[in-house]
Every structure is written in C-alpha cells, then in structure tokens.
Amino acid sequence: MIKNTRLFGIATIVSLLFLIVACTPEEKTETFWVNSYKTTVDNDDNYQLLVSESDNLEDANWDKFENSIEGFTFKPGYFQKIEVKVEDVEGQETKKYTLKDVLEEKLDMRYRLNDTWVVVAIDGKDVEKKEDQELPQLEMNLSKGQVSGTDGCNRIFGQITEIKENTIKFDKMGSTRMACPDMETPDAFMSAFAKVKQYKLNDLELVLLDENNNEVLKFKKVD
C-alpha cells in the first residue's frame, strides 16, 4: 500500500511538471545583423540602429530599429550578428528586446571612410596649395549619408546615395557661391564627383575612381 502511494505521488509530480512545461509560453527569439554605423532620425542628432536579417551584408537592405536592446553594446565599425529575446509589454504595443548572444562580428571596411580627407590630386594631377586658399577637403558622415567640406573656396555639401565595399556614388553636390582668385581647382574638384563610381583605401590614402577604374580624386587622411 505504501509502495503504491509513493508511485502515485511520483506520477502526480511528473504529471504536474509536464503540465507546467506545457503551459509555459515558448520563448520568442529573433536573429539579425546590426550595421556598423547608426542612422539619424529626421536629420537630427538622435540615432537609431540599422538592422537586417540578410547574411549578404554587401547587398542587404537595412531597416531602422526603433527599440532599445537590453544588454547590447553597439560597436562602431563592426557588423554584429545577434540573437535577442522578444517579449510583449503588458498594456503597450511596443516589445522588449534583450540580448541573448552575439553570434558573429565582422569588421566593416567602409567605416574608415567616415573621416575628413584632404585632396592631393584631381584627375591624376597633383594639387598644390595656392596662396590664401585652402586645399579642398571632404568630410564623410555615413550615419547621415552626407558629405561636407570645402572646395578650396566655398563650403560644399552633398549626399552619399550608395556605399558598398568598393563602390560609392554621390548626388546633389553643391556649394556656396563666393568668388576666389583661383576657381580652376574648386571647379575641377566639384565636377569630379559626377564621375565617381568606385573607391580604394590604402592605409591613410583614399582614391575615388570612375567606372573604368581611372583615378578621379585622391585624398589623404587629415591628422
């Protein structure tokens, strides 16, 4: 009798455990890549992560991620593939995201473009600094998809419309309209951007190329 009672007790406990497991909600997880740089929200100084489910980082479509991820540390210049736990928040439409694991990290070579560069050659010809005029400079901001700087006379601005591992395209390049004694270099500098399709990075040197691999603009990194 005692033996049967014990067996019944064990069976009851096992049944309860199965019932608890069966009633426990299955943990929801998501896996995606986080881009190496953030993007701005409405062109202000608020930044959001960019994420993609594609493993083809070269041609991935990146979406803004409007939530925070508890426990996640963003690393500028690195793609990070992460797994997160996703939970509903009672009474809210938003969800809670918590980092479970960083599955993979990859250095993003594009991130080195995110700097200020001074021109040393245009169309293969060395550029010399003229008296009372600066050398043209280009500053790239990948998060905003914008460029700024100077053509040596006027302030410049424009957009980066495409950037991949070896290709880059600019659009809507413009400048202020101040006249300077030497406009040959500023005009050549600004005209060159329409031809740019590719780029090469060699240590502290950036070379922008046309579709036939001809050198269009050569820069060195500003110290």
UniProtKB/TrEMBL annotation:
Protein name stated in the entry: Heat shock protein HslJ
InterPro entries registered for this protein in UniProt: DUF306_Meta_HslJ (IPR005184), DUF4377 (IPR025485), HslJ-like_sf (IPR038670), Hsp_HslJ-like (IPR053147)
Cleavable signal peptide: 1-22
DUF306 domain sequence ranges: 114-220
Boundaries of every DUF4377 domain copy: 33-104
Cross-referenced Pfam families: DUF4377, META
PANTHER family to which the protein is assigned, alphabetical: HEAT SHOCK PROTEIN HSLJ
Organism, scientific name: Balneicella halophila
